[in-house]
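To illustrate the input format used throughout this study, we show a single complete record. The first block contains the structure-token representation of the backbone; no residue identities are included at this stage. The design step must infer an amino acid for every position from geometry alone.
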């Protein structure tokens, strides 16, 4: 709060006081009051006003300086009322109470939005689990009839993948920690994924090679199975029709981390698209060709990896290969303390 702005804001009052003094002078003159007495009264009036203005400026300056600084420096503006003390002048109390009421209303609105989001998320998860029951039954029927209904099996697997995408998208977008990070065997996680996609790999005539996966990693097993399942699904979806699909998975260990590499010899990704493959709804040239992609799979994978604390990156050469690398930290005990079991 600056002195010149304060005086400018008070200018109407000063003009009114000067007019009042002039009018008083005319009346006092009419009653033949001595000039010395009138000057004494004017001086007393001016001194009293100067003292009042300085006092008024100082008590308002303290409040408004804190307000201006908080507005300028706070990243979370909604915390502004917490930075202020209730002032002792009327206008300041009005501002303080208005900010407090606004903040309270905002918190109530956020709480209502969180409640609505939570209820919607719970409904989505319930629907997903209900929808997966008949899908699991159909998958079992197809597996029991080997070499029959291959097209039906492929479509059911696509439906199953789509349902899982809905479930894990809901979980990845939610602020709550709906996961449990603990030490799990990497080869067991990958074995579960390989079993799930075994029939689809056979139908595609694909070969799968896995090596050096005998490591313990800190992650959520279910989330990691979904992540690897998405990579497997993408390999099947974007395989090159001119050659048999080959998928190779291996792990590289160092002193402080384990890196899981997932590589296929599919159609690859163009260099112009590569930096954006983890962006939401980005399909790229490959997705537009066959209208198969929603652009959500790798976005969900990236989001889940971020929540789990894993780094993920991709490299590719169009028409040759695509390789995804997921890096797990070793001995990250702090992450275990944040475990929130489903």
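Output of the design step:
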């Amino acid at each position: 709060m600056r002195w010149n702005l304060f005086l400018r804001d008070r200018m109407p009052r000063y003009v009114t006081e000067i007019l009042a003094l002039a009018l008083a002078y005319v009346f006092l003159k009419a009653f033949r009051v001595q000039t010395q007495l009138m000057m004494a009264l004017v001086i007393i009036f001016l001194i009293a006003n100067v003292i009042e203005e300085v006092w008024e400026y100082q008590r308002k300056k303290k409040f408004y300086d804190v307000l201006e600084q908080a507005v300028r420096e706070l990243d979370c503006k909604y915390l502004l009322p917490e930075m202020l003390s209730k002032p002792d002048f009327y206008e300041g109390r009005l501002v303080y109470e208005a900010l407090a009421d606004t903040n309270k209303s905002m918190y109530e609105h956020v709480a209502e939005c969180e409640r609505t989001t939570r209820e919607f998320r719970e409904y989505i998860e319930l629907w997903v689990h209900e929808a997966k029951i008949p899908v699991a039954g159909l998958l079992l029927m197809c597996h029991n009839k080997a070499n029959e209904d291959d097209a039906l099996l492929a479509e059911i697997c696509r439906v199953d993948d789509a349902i899982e995408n809905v479930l894990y998208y809901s979980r990845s977008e939610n602020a709550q920690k709906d996961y449990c990070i603990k030490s799990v065997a990497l080869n067991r996680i990958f074995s579960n994924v390989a079993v799930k996609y075994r029939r689809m790999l056979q139908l595609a005539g694909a070969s799968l090679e896995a090596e050096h996966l005998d490591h313990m990693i800190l992650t959520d097993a279910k989330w990691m199975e979904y992540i690897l399942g998405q990579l497997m699904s993408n390999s099947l979806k974007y395989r090159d029709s001119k050659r048999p699909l080959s998928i190779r998975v291996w792990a590289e260990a160092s002193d402080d981390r384990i890196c899981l590499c997932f590589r296929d010899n599919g159609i690859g990704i163009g260099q112009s698209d590569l930096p954006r493959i983890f962006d939401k709804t980005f399909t790229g040239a490959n997705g537009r060709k066959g209208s198969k992609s929603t652009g959500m799979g790798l976005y969900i994978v990236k989001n889940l990896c971020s929540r789990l604390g894993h780094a993920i990156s991709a490299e590719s050469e169009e028409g040759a290969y695509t390789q995804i690398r997921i890096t797990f930290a070793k001995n990250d005990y702090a992450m275990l303390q944040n475990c929130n079991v489903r």
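Structural context for interpreting the output: The first strand starts at residue 182 and ends at 185. The radius of gyration is 35 Å.
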